[in-house]
Amino acid sequence: MSAPAPGQITAPDWLTHSITAAHPAEAAGWLADLPALVAAQLTRLDLTLDRVLDPGGTLSLVAYVHRNDDLTPAALKVSLRTPATAHEPEALTTWAGRGAVLLLDAHRTPTSGVLLLERLHGEVPLRSLAEPKAMLEATSLLHRLWLPLPDPPGPALPEAALTLPETAPALPEATPLLTEARETATALTASATERFLLHGDFHHGNVLAADRAPWLAIAPRPLVGERAYDLARLALDRADTLVGSPGVPAAVRRRLHQLAEALDVDRDRLRGWTLVRAVDLALTALAANRRPEAELYLEFAGAL
Questions:
Q1: What is the rounded distance in angstroms from the CA atom of residue 49 to the CA atom of residue 6?
Q2: Active site residues
Q3: Which pTM does this prediction carry?
């Protein structure tokens, strides 16, 4: 097989597998069109491709590029357009670099979203820090991202949160937790009073070292809703170390208490959303045939 021509891309295997598992109907066509789309955007923006990041994102190809006029480094992100990714440019525009990667250009096609972003240090995620320091940095950053706006970009939280299926396929032992998660999500969305712009997928892997600031958030899946929903995803970070520690229920309660106190979030609502998001992550992992990961999140949910 001949090598790709300069500027031509090949989708990483991780992206191919993850996008096929998540969106089987759209994956083949989108992946087939991806090289031509990237080439067209390199021309439109007068960029030179440096390299494609591997693995990159689960729904996005990410490439390091530089501007031809002044050699400024940047990152080109091309995503399959889904409800989860559709409002990323609006959220980044709202933040305008405050706590998040800076958006330099945005372009949409019927099936894709194309973002030109400032280049961060992709090899240095917040996960590279020890957990106590990482959590301290993460909570500080979340506090900056949460904006109380009347009509921020993104779908309303009930629309995003109440998507849990009735049953867990191939994992019948999860059914009691799934039932509880559905009931909890319904109760929490019915009683929510906050309307904040949320990141939607905030965890240590989605925070990178930067030159402009110590740490900046990337890859939002923006939502409108209460802060406890966003904080719940952070509570689930490094679940393997927490589940592997002695006294798991006590360790989980301690983490929730510390996070809720650090950001002045109601602890009971944080517990509820953490249950919902743990079950959701378990089902997502199961759909992608990652059963050990699914079982990990279900064990975390059970500890709640």
A1: 8
A2: 201
A3: 0.91
